[in-house]
From TrEMBL, chain A:
GO molecular function, one term: ATP binding
Listed InterPro entries: AAA+_ATPase, ABC_transporter-like_ATP-bd, ABC_transporter-like_CS, P-loop_NTPase, PstB-like
NCBIfam families linked: 3a0107s01c2 (TIGR00972)
Any one of the GO BP annotations: phosphate ion transmembrane transport
Keywords carried by this UniProt record: ATP-binding, Nucleotide-binding, Phosphate transport, Transport
Protein name (database record): Phosphate ABC transporter ATP-binding protein
UniProtKB/TrEMBL annotation, chain B:
Biological process terms in GO annotation: intracellular phosphate ion homeostasis; negative regulation of phosphate metabolic process; phosphate ion transport
UniProt xrefs under InterPro entries: PhoU, PhoU-like_sf, PhoU_dom
Subunit structure: Homodimer.
GO CC, any one term: cytoplasm
Functional summary from the UniProt entry: Plays a role in the regulation of phosphate uptake.
Domain PhoU: 17-103, 120-205
Family of this protein: Belongs to the PhoU family.
Assigned keywords, A-Z: Cytoplasm, Phosphate transport, Transport
Domain of life: Bacteria
The keyword Protein transport is assigned to this record: no
Localization per Swiss-Prot or TrEMBL: Cytoplasm
PANTHER family the UniProt entry points to: PHOSPHATE-SPECIFIC TRANSPORT SYSTEM ACCESSORY PROTEIN PHOU
Record-given protein name: Phosphate-specific transport system accessory protein PhoU
Organism: Levilactobacillus bambusae
Amino acid sequence: MTEKILTTHDLHLYYGNKEALKGINLDFNRLGITALIGPSGCGKSTYLRTLNRMNDLIPDVTITGEVKFQGRDLYAPQADTVEIRKEIGMVFQQPNPFPFSIYENVVYGLRIAGVRDKSVLDEAVEKSLRQAAVWDEVRDHLHESALALSGGQQQRVCIARVLAVSPDIILLDEPTSALDPVSTSQIEATLLNLRHDYTIIIVTHNLQQASRISDRTAFFMDGELVEVGNTKEMFLNPEKKKTEDYLSGRFG
Amino acid sequence: MRRLFDDELEELDSDFTEMGLLVADRISAAVTAFTDRDTQLADRVINHDHEVNEREIALEQKSFEMIALYQPVTTDLREIVTILKAVSDLERAADHARNIAHAALKVTDKERIPELEALINQMGTKTTQMIRDVLTAYTSVDEDRAKQIAQIGQELDELNHDARNLSYEHMKSDPEFKTAASIYVNVAQDLDRIGDYVTNVCEWIIYLKSGRIVELD
């Protein structure tokens, strides 16, 4: 049996009184890509952010239920969010490089973790940038500002920054919605390579992106998980009428 | 929500139905030309065969365009795939109608074999009805109806078998009948093949409805 790396059980999330997640039960196997899709406001990004406790930063949020990473409760009182976010990294919609050099962006997490050895850092920079498929484009400019890069390159540097701290899971919240089609396909190709070594969970509004790159798709609506399954099957023959209507653009 | 895609799909559906009715008419005309020994009608079937081919190409192009422009999924995709597959089956069915029209030209100066003509008439009626029914089953995405229509394909198999035996008997009893009987055998064979193509369309209707690819023969 494939090992479950991340499990959520009866997960509810409230913004004040508003229930944004209504008891989500969803598990993730190690490795591969899972796409979370659904209309705006369906809860998919909220759900994604519960997976590495990003919602902690939002005031007036209440979370009940269970999120377990490798059997460990992420919401246990003793859980360390810094540690969690190292193991479960996140890439955001807008590329958000720090206003440093490309090199310093990539090693940021390692420096915080106290790594000083230059050869270790150099190695991590090259390895991560290669994995993020941006090394060839930036290798001669490592000490120039990351802000000078194109949006697509910035996003891949952000992916490299996540990879540098060797996470198990990479969460991506619409990582290509601010990018042009060429950069988008570069990011997709990057993710398709990474899926062999990492568990990837991606929120996307681009249904073709979900069908192109994901192994499994989960469809959310009104704070509920409507259907989850093999992507190919879902895009050819979904079980639920709601899924069918959403995928074929009848609403949303 | 009504989508632009729905309008285009509706147009595609009605073009497909029109092509189907045209093919049914061609088969019916070819069989009439054969049994009535009407060479003018046979010529018309042969000379107008290109119209079916042109419709097939137009429907294929339209389907490719819709796939490229709308990137359909789920039943939308299955509907277009069904049409793409079904139009080539219908086009092949029409090729057999053309064969029958050619046979009609060849048979004019040969002996008549009334029992065989009756069988061929019966097969002709069944095949044209099968096509008309399959178009209705497609429009209403009626899986059960599609299965019933495929059964008629098996009846055609049996009639073809009867026609073949009857022809051989005639050939044996009187060598005069030899050429005529072999033409009758071919026509029965053409009609049986048309039944097979319509059965394929039935299979695609089941795919459209269920997403399952099945074999009905």
